[in-house]
Amino acid sequence: MPQPNVFQKKTTEHKAHEATGMMRWLLTYADMITLLFVMFVVLFAIASVNTGKYQQLSAAIQAAFNNPEKAQEIEAAMEKEKEGKEGKKTRTEPAPDSMKKLKEEFVQAVDKEKLQGQLHVFVDERGLVISLITDNALFSLGEATMKPQAKGILKKVADLIRRKKLTQNIRIEGHTCDLPILTAQFPSNWELSTARATTVLKYLVEKERLNPYRLSAAGYAHYRPLLQNISEKNRARNRRVDIIITRENKKKIGSM
């Protein structure tokens, strides 16, 4: 009677044990990948919290445990939505050539209206800037009440804005020089610069009927000078109100 092959029996048992170990390793690896996917979906949802993201999060978690292929479809849809939003944001910003052309049109209009010496037009990182020199055009030193001639200048600026049918936001910034002010009405240059910007904004809205949803006002005191405050000429240039046609569009709420 032949004796059983002990070596062959042990080899067979070893292979069976090895196969079982491999399956356990694969299951552990699959669980880890699933948990990582869920974690990244949660992080993505937290980055932009809204109802739609919560619904996508719920569907993605359920799909991750029940249907991996469906999870990939949801992830692709979320990425497509993100790209679409970024594309829309980019399209709201006028191209540099467009802003340059707008500047040229405003410069020509300023020359035609004989506004030289009262305002400057230039483009910077904020957008198209119509910079009104307050001493010459708008306000007396240390005051926020408009001069009589200021209304005529602002009317011409408002006419230009309406004529171009602009869709961008318009921000009005008040700026002062570094000379301190201390009065009951204006304890510092912060109050003075903000009051001047607000005065211009209210005139454009109440008298010129520009769309208030597109306008905003801010005061920066003497902290954003155009020139160094080392001479009276430079200080006079720094005392200004900037009307800025920004690079970002506003949602359509109404026309100018």
Give a quick summary of the entry.
By secondary structure, this protein is of the alpha+beta class. It has helices at 6-47, 51-66, 68-91, 96-112, 134-138, 148-164, 189-206, 232-238, and strands spanning 119-124, 127-133, 168-175, 215-219, 240-249.
Structural class: alpha+beta
> How many domain regions?
2
Number of helices: 8
Fourth CATH level, the homologous superfamily of the largest domain: OmpA-like domain
Global morphology:
elongated
Strand order of the largest sheet: 1-2-5-3-4
Topology:
Layout lengths: L5 H42 L3 H16 L1 H24 L4 H17 L6 E6 L2 E7 H5 L9 H17 L3 E8 L13 H18 L8 E5 L12 H7 L1 E10 L7
Parallel strand pairs: 3-4
Antiparallel strand pairs: 1-2, 2-5, 3-5
Folded structure, characterized:
The longest helix has 42 residues, at 6-47. Helix 1 runs antiparallel to helix 2 (51-66) and helix 2 (51-66) packs antiparallel against helix 3. The model is unreliable at 87-92 (pLDDT under 50). The protein is 57% helix and 14% strand. The chain contains eight helices and five strands; from the N terminus they run H-H-H-H-E-E-H-H-E-H-E-H-E. The protein folds into two domains: 6-91; 96-249, OmpA-like domain (60s Ribosomal Protein L30, Chain: A, 2-Layer Sandwich). The chain is elongated and about 90 Å long. Strand 3, helix 7 (189-206) and strand 4 (215-219) form a beta-alpha-beta unit. The protein has helices at residues 6-47, 51-66, 68-91, 96-112, 134-138, 148-164, 189-206, 232-238, and strands spanning 119-124, 127-133, 168-175, 215-219, 240-249. Strands 1-2-5-3-4 form a five-stranded mixed beta sheet.
